[in-house]
Amino acid sequence: MEEGGNLGGLIKMVHLLVLSGAWGMQMWVTFVSGFLLFRSLPRHTFGLVQSKLFPFYFHISMGCAFINLCILASQHAWAQLTFWEASQLYLLFLSLTLATVNARWLEPRTTAAMWALQTVEKERGLGGEVPGSHQGPDPYRQLREKDPKYSALRQNFFRYHGLSSLCNLGCVLSNGLCLAGLALEIRSL
């Protein structure tokens, strides 16, 4: 980094720890814990766990992106930004925006849609089984085919869930690219 943009050692450590911590958390929640919990817990228990976990997860992601953006934005002369510095600021702003959309808008709607789905499923005696454990025809498919209200609720849930997943993947990618850029700047190990 150039003169005037030299981060002190402590600020560099905070930046690296917050960025790597956020990315590690995002990788774990996105690619490990969700799949393990989905395969191991009854459907409605999984939903309950996710409804408690995700608000914290998205708010922590939002806070980490905000801290990193503030650190970098305060350390650079805006008129003299290099391509990489401008890219890193853009990526962190993107991560902050996507995490905020997830935390403040998508997560509450996804969770509300999930509760509505679970209400209908409980009325039909569904939701207590671990995915893949039932034999015979899929009772959820049968419910979708017979109940247009349930089918509409399911579409609504998957719309919000899909948008939330895309935002989350955007955060993972943005933070991963920032980390890759930092790693490429390391002169020795």
Task: Give a description of the structure.
With 189 residues, this protein is an all-alpha fold. The protein has one domain. 80% of the residues lie in helices and 0% in strands. The two termini are 18 Å apart.
List the helices and strands and how they pair.
Elements lengths: L8 H32 L2 H32 L8 H41 L15 H8 L1 H38 L4
What would the keywords be for this entry?
189 residues; mainly alpha; transmembrane helix; Transmembrane protein 205; TMEM205; transmembrane
* DSSP, total strands: 0
Describe the oligomeric state of these chains in a short phrase: single chain
Helicity, as a percent range: over 70%
Order of helices and strands: HHHHH
In terms of DSSP E residues, the strand content is under 5%
Q: Termini distance? A: 18 Å
Low-confidence segments: none
Largest sheet, in brief, is: none
Describe the structure in brief:
This protein is an all-alpha fold and 189 residues long. It has one domain (9-185). It has helices at residues 9-40, 43-74, 83-123, 139-146, 148-185.
